[in-house]
Amino acid sequence: MSKPKDSSNIKVPDNVILEILTSSELRMLKNRWKIINLLQEGLSIRSIAKEVSVGTDTVVRVARMIEKGNLRKLLEKQEFKNRIKTNTPWIFGKSNS
After folding, report:
1. In the 8-state DSSP scheme, what is residue 93?
2. 55-80 confidence digits (pLDDT tens)
3. pLDDT at 71
4. Where are the alpha helices (H) located in the chain, listed in sequence order?
5. Residue 58: phi, psi to the nearest 5?
6. Residue 97 pLDDT > 60, yes or no?
7. How far apart are CA 65 and CA 18, in angstroms?
8. What is the pLDDT of residue 44?
9. If you average pLDDT over residues 2-30, what whole number do you get?
10. In sequence order, which residues have a C-beta less than 8 Å from that of residue 63 and are 6 or more positions away?
11. How far apart are CA 74 and CA 67, in angstroms?
12. Residue 55: C-alpha distances to residues 32, 35, 92 (Å)
């Protein structure tokens, strides 16, 4: 059996995604989206974790996803151009606001 080809260019319609995801997965995606928006506002990790009701490790994980590049590139194509500031200046309780 051959290895499947890379399928990173597959476009899945939004309505199909909503049907495929479990309620837990959908809630997780919504939480991550909230975290992204709060990171853009410059809130600290602890305050974001408290507001979204997740652990600080979840907030750090999302921030690292942004810093790695692919998510940042996608977000910059959206309306968030020049608003996402990471490099972890907002460590636990500190904020650059």
Report:
1. T
2. 999 999 999 988 886 677 777 776 55
3. 72
4. 14-20, 23-40, 45-52, 56-68, 70-77
5. -65, -40
6. no
7. 22
8. 93
9. 83
10. 35, 39, 45, 86, 88
11. 12
12. 12, 11, 12
- The distance of Cα 59 from the centroid of its chain, to the nearest Å, equals 9
Instruction: Find tokens 């809630």 and name the residue.
Output: 27
pLDDT reported for residue 92: 46
Q: How far is C-alpha 33 from the chain's CA centre?
A: 5
Cα–Cα–Cα angle for 33, 39, 44, rounded to 5 degrees = 130
**pTM of the predicted model, to two decimals?**
0.65
61 close to 74: Cβ distance less than 8 angstroms: no
CB proximity list for 86: less than 8 A, separation 6 or greater: 39, 63, 66, 67, 72
